[in-house]
Amino acid sequence: MKANAFTFALAIAFGFALSRIGFASWDQVHAMLTFADLRLVFTFGLAVALLALGWTLLGLVVPERMHFRRREIHRGTLVGGLLFGAGWALSGACPAVAFVQIGEGQLAAGWTLLGILAGNYAYGVLHARYLRWDAGSCLDE
User: Fold this and answer.
1) Into how many domains does the chain fold?
2) Is residue 85, in this structure, part of any structural domain at all?
């Protein structure tokens, strides 16, 4: 129960930060994607740098729990990345930001969430029926 409360508090703080930075604004995201305003691009870069530092420090503190291996890029990654980017550019929101937008009262983000759910469902149907490639897993050892 403690872990769930901590995770929930962390999610609320993360959502608040995303909102305050401007990631929940379609105009701000559009400015980032068109390189008209590099503030959000630099925010992404800082987040990646902090994450890399965090993983490095975690690997030094608990090396027995850090076991990564190189994996080949899945052939659906390019298509998935393009679809994700197109959806983000059209809606102005990735999945996390859609929840932030709803929290801000931007109820139109409900359409974004419906699109995310429909896209995931459609992928599952298409993959099972036509594609059937090995999607790999982070759990593979």
Assistant:
1) 1
2) yes
Locate 97 and state its tokens.
């930001």
Kindly tell me the sign of the dihedral angle through the C-alpha atoms of 105, 21, 4, 84.
positive
Kindly state whether residue 60 falls inside one of the protein's structural domains: no
In tens digits, what is the pLDDT along the chain, a chain of 141 residues?
A: 888 999 999 999 999 999 999 989 989 988 988 999 999 999 989 999 999 999 999 989 998 887 777 777 777 788 888 888 888 888 888 888 999 999 999 999 999 999 999 988 988 888 888 887 776 665 555
Domain containing 126 equals 2-37+69-131
64 is a domain residue = no
Do the domain assignments include residue 57? no
